[in-house]
Amino acid sequence: MSRRYDEAERRLGLSPRDAWGRRNENPPDVSFWQLIREDLRTHDGNPFEQGFWAVAVHRFGNWRMDLPKILRAPCTLIYAVLEKMVQVFGGITLPYVVRLGRRVRIWHHSGIIVVARSIGNDVHIRQNVTMGVAKTWTTDCPIIEDGVHVGAGAAILGRVVIGREASIGANSVVLDDVDEHATVVGVPARALPGRVRTPTASDGVAETEANRVVDANLK
Fold first, then answer.
1. Within 10 Å of residue 45's Cβ, how many Cβ atoms?
2. Chain centre to alpha carbon of residue 26
3. Coil, strand, or helix at residue 207?
4. pLDDT at 205
């Protein structure tokens, strides 16, 4: 488990633990306002979606890290107020130190704690989901790869990697790595037999083409 986690950290180029929160972790290939427009579309174009609030404030929290210190200070105060408002009125905790990919959708609201090392592109998170440490004396948080679907009430805890396109069943408790394209359910979560799809060469081609179309629409 530790080897897979270490490999994922290297492959994704994640910041060292002592550097968390010290740089802008927004996706580098698009601007801040392009990200906000894309996130709004991801949330059905509804600016009143609590999930959109959480993601937009998260983007702002990272964007401010590129500002000179004299300008960053008031933005940090604004971010702190906005983050608390999202927690109070949306029931969602999403610290800016989490590396968040593109087109992440947070469905519904309330009881959502998202403290992960990294969350990939096209991830879906539903109500009452918890991501974070498995033990209070550690800082090990999950790595969620692209295309993962997390069901309502699920908990993903500790030094685990959730592989691409995996599905986490509602109310499952995940304490171990999950393979790509697998579906896991239960407490503790176990993979359903026969529910792992072998990826094909066309998967990567389709994803690349989809990202190209989305980027073109942003311009």
1. 10
2. 11
3. helix
4. 42
CA distance linking residue 65 with residue 61, whole number of Å: 7
* The CATH number of the domain covering residues in 2-214: 2.160.10.10
Q: Whose structure tokens read 């698009």?
A: 30
Give the residue carrying structure tokens 């359903």.
192
Instruction: With H, G, I as helix, E, B as strand and everything else as coil, classify residue 215.
Output: helix
Q: DSSP letter at 65?
A: G
Mean pLDDT of 183-192: 95
Residue 162: CA count within 13 A, CB half-sphere: 36
> Which of 91-95, 172-176, 189-193 is predicted with the least confidence, judged by mean pLDDT?
189-193
Mean pLDDT of 99-110: 95
With tokens 């906005």, the residue in question is: 82
Rounded CA separation 118/101 (Å) = 8
Q: 3-state class of 69 per DSSP?
A: helix
Alpha carbon distances (Å) from 132 to 75, 76, 150, 159:
26, 24, 14, 9
Q: Is the pLDDT of residue 200 over 60?
A: no
Each domain of the chain, given as residue ranges in start order, spans 2-214
Q: Are 116 and 143 in contact (CB under 8 A)?
A: yes
For residues 173 and 188, is the Cβ–Cβ distance under 8 A? yes
**Where is 100: in which H helix or E strand?**
strand 99-100
Taking only Cα atoms into account, the Rg of the chain, rounded to an integer number of angstroms, comes to 17
